[in-house]
């Protein structure tokens, strides 16, 4: 499957050599830092988020999230790649605040587990989207270095874009000589408040791969997502003031009785292994166990675990059976099926109380049964409508962030696994 990420993919594979040259002296110079690095992961709809639009209603925010989700999935599965730039993919829901350069310049980037590198707009800018924070000015950073564009590797980059290196600071940890993208010609659907992308993909020269040597336990990151702030008023026990968290490095509490772990797979979906692909073997809805048929099973890596997509998109055949199973379970409860008022084509029900006490849903990833809560399975979209937080995908599915709320999700690039641990992210 071709993906819109193949421009990033080309970059990633083409700068392996540069990367090796750069890394070899970087690693020795800086001491390891003791602990895991924690950063707030700011949901764009949190009042403290720079992207928060106070004139929207909560329902509009939910509806916008569903639209972004659809846009993102369309780009995942689109075979087109006509974009003239690197900064096109802004549909993520979460932001992190890191810094680039010396002295450190704050950088609010969209978290994107579907791309590999940090990308920001740089001066001088031939074509940029407007942004509120000043553009990154390489001249103002004493540690900035442009990589030579004469190399075959760099010529694969789009015209007018540069791969650069500079110090990246996460919390109080500074990591020198990190390759990032300095875009001089950019476009895309950015609001102008964020400055770019923090790509957390798993490619060979991805950001995580580069900084692994500075992290406790190597190339490992995790996050814990609190319930969507636009919905928190619905739930009695969610703490609207607590933030989702992102952790770089391996916590020493990453195993326990409730942690389930599934292998990361390599398959043909992305030549550069940017995506976190796993094998979904089936889904249980109450007592009904839906397993993928033999054909689908032959296609092993069939789900991308993604932080930037809101909903979960299931492989086509699986979705139809899943939806029927849910509707079957809900039939007994006298729930009226109704049209999705957001226009996202979801399977929706008329409901007059807060949380739909749906059937127990378990995702059977290879070696990892992830039991969803009702709040992961359904999304309330207005005063009287609750919808399945799942939609029909095509080809490879995507496991979105709604299904990941209140799990500590760990991405282990050393052991090639993803783990899920049920966690109250509002108190941890
Ligand atoms: C905020 O939402 C309103 C209502 O939809 C819209 O008109 C306005 O452009 C939005 N503001 C920003 C900065 O996006
Ligand atoms: C980002 O972090 C810097 C300090 O590291 C701070 O000055 C800045 O206000 C933060 N920006 C946002 C939007 O939180
Ligand atoms: C929230 O609390 C109210 C009153 O305490 C209760 O009636 C309602 O069922 C609770 N809602 C949920 C989702 O627990
Ligand atoms: C909500 O979170 C804040 C900050 O983490 C904490 O001080 C407060 O006690 C929490 N409230 C509840 C009800 O959990
Ligand atoms: C985890 O590490 C911290 C500090 O590095 C230590 O205080 C704590 O006891 C450790 N926990 C476990 C379960 O090993
Ligand atoms: C349902 O099927 C999956 C395989 O798709 C299996 O791993 C799981 O144990 C089954 N669960 C039940 C309750 O039968
Ligand atoms: C869901 O599973 C739990 C046990 O994990 C059980 O107590 C509960 O009754 C189940 N709920 C439904 C609706 O089947
Ligand atoms: C994973 O890799 C790390 C470091 O490479 C190692 O310490 C650990 O024991 C491995 N296994 C698990 C299950 O985490």
From TrEMBL:
Residues 1-26 form the signal peptide. Keywords: Aspartyl protease, Hydrolase, Protease, Secreted, Signal. It is found in: Secreted. GO terms for biological process: proteolysis. GO terms for molecular function: aspartic-type endopeptidase activity. Residues 94-421 form the Peptidase A1 domain. GO terms for cellular component: extracellular region. InterPro entries: Aspartic_peptidase_A1, Aspartic_peptidase_AS, Pepsin-like_plant, PEPTIDASE_A1, Peptidase_aspartic_dom_sf, Plant_Aspart_Prot_A1. The active site is at 112, 306. The keyword Protease applies. It comes from the Eukaryota. Its EC number is 3.4.23.12. The keyword Transmembrane helix does not apply. CDD domains: pepsin_A_like_plant (cd05476). Belongs to the peptidase A1 family. This is Putative nepenthesin. It comes from Rosa chinensis (China rose).
